[in-house]
Amino acid sequence: MIARFVVLIAMLGALVAPTYAQSNFEIRAIYAAILDHETGELLYSKDGDVAMAPSSMSKLMTALMVFEALERGELTMETTLPVSEEAWRRGGAASGSSTMFLEVNSRASVADLLRGIIVQSGNDACIVVAEALGGSEQNFAMMMTERAQELGLESANFANSTGWPDPEHRISAIDLARLTRHIIAEHPQYFSLYGEEEFTYNGIRQFNRNPLLGLFVGADGMKTGRTDDAGYGLTATAERDGVRRIVVFNGMDSERDRASEAERLMRAALTEFRVDTIVEAGTLVGDAEVYLGQSAIVPLQVTETLDIGGHRRDLDAFTAEVVYDGPLNAPVAAGTIVGRLEVSLPDGRSQSVPLAAAETVERKGALGRAGAALARLIRGG
Predict the structure, then answer these.
(1) Is the distance from CB of 66 to CB of 110 less than 8 angstroms?
(2) Is 295 in the same domain as 251?
(3) Would you name the residues annotated as active-site residues?
(4) 238: number of Cβ within 10 Å
(5) 259-290 pLDDT, tens per residue?
(6) Which of 261, 117, 82 has its CA nearest to residue 193?
(7) CATH number, position 67
């Protein structure tokens, strides 16, 4: 049978606090996620795992493909790439889309194209790099999807390089946050581009649409998005006092709503959410019953440190349970995984870590086993 025991307050010390009400933290956006940059812990999700239309936030993946080509030496920042009629027609001013105003049959440097993608959200710049790296935008989109899957972004499927509406063009808010974390951690030499507030190309000055830049202390990236179907969205990051958070949300009704929600959500991410070490590897958290053992119980030890992120009120009200299939049959060797510690938060999320026997319990001798069998028979077991 399954033996389930609630871990008492004394077992985990001061980390287990009296139960409070769930935080009930809410956001008006349809999709949202908050990620801790250092640990990668998910702090908050509102349908954050649902594949959504990311609009121009998908240009994070487009830029990553360029960063990796730079790392491989296939491009340099000084390399110039041709502007095809396709890039000019579909991504230029005449298309009614975001553009960096590239001229047809001209050439643009990778440095300028990256700023066109990141600062100006230029669709024309995206198509130029897509054609250069993939031969065609369609092939480049397949490369984007393949690379995203390699990075573990399982919800990602890209139909183009720009975020132009397409029913097959999807990625979740959580995966956008993870993609942002990857860019910051693995390509710091290019990360500063996301904090640039304006860029002038072809004599036309354009401003970064990220509403947090220059207004929210510590904000230094990443990318806005907007289409009629998806609404207004933002992938953003900010750092204060050595703590960096990544926020993604999508589905706002207006640019004004996006700006106000961006500030509210990022402020909360930095002040109301945290990552706690619930229990460290090696901690003894309880005992398991042992049948026919020279000892009737064996202490259980956590094998991995368990960190959980969430709203401070939820983290102050977690519950923990030791779960094992018992009683265990002797002999039990020290280090054998025999159960798990389950930790649950009021917001419905839960995580678990394996539990191992902390000591070896030998099997009773023949006389002891006979006595145990007789006792069990008398009890009707």
Answers:
(1) yes
(2) no
(3) 56, 59, 121
(4) 23
(5) 999 999 999 999 999 999 999 999 999 999 99
(6) 117
(7) 3.40.710.10
Say yes or no: 183 and 294 in one domain. no
Average pLDDT over residues 369-381: 56
Distance (Å, whole) CA 102 – CA 182: 29
Helix/strand/coil percentages in the chain, nearest 5: 35, 30, 35
For the stretch 222-270, pLDDT in tens is: 999 999 999 999 999 999 999 999 999 999 999 999 999 999 999 999 9
pTM of the full structure: 0.86
- Number of other residues whose CB lies within 10 A of the CB of residue 337: 11
Q: Give the separation between CA 368 and CA 377, rounded to whole angstroms.
A: 14
Query: How many Cβ atoms sit within 10 Å of the Cβ of residue 82?
Result: 13
Task: Give 316-368 as a DSSP string.
Answer: TT-EEEEEEESSEESPB-TT-EEEEEEEE-TTS-EEEEEEEESS-BPBP-HHH
- Decide which of 271, 303, 332 is a domain's last residue: 271
State the Cα–Cα distance between residues 84 and 231, nearest whole angstrom. 30
Please report, in angstroms and rounded to a whole number, the separation of the first and last CA atoms in the chain: 13
Is the distance from CB of 185 to CB of 199 less than 8 angstroms? no
Tokens coding 196? 């640039």
Q: Are residues 217 and 307 in the same domain?
A: no
Cα–Cα distances (Å) from 36 to 42, 363, 375, in that order, read 6, 47, 55
Distance (Å, whole) CA 227 – CA 245: 25
Q: Is 182 helix (H, G, I), strand (E, B) or coil?
A: helix
What are the structure tokens assigned to 279, written together?
């229990």
Domain count, the chain: 2
Question: What is the mean predicted confidence (pLDDT) over 17-28?
Answer: 61
Please indicate, yes or no, if residue 45 is contained in any of the structural domains: yes
* Alpha carbon distance 60, 72 (integer Å): 18
Contact 91, 127 (CB under 8 A): yes
- Of 258, 213, 261, give the one whose Cα is nearest residue 231: 258
For residue 163, the SS3 value is: coil
- State the sign of the Cα–Cα–Cα–Cα dihedral 114, 119, 124, 130: positive
CA-to-CA dists, residue 91 to 13, 95, 126, 282, 332, angstroms: 59, 6, 8, 57, 67
Q: Which of 236, 271, 306 is a domain's end point?
A: 271
Q: Are strands 350-357 and 297-302 parallel, antiparallel or unpaired?
A: antiparallel
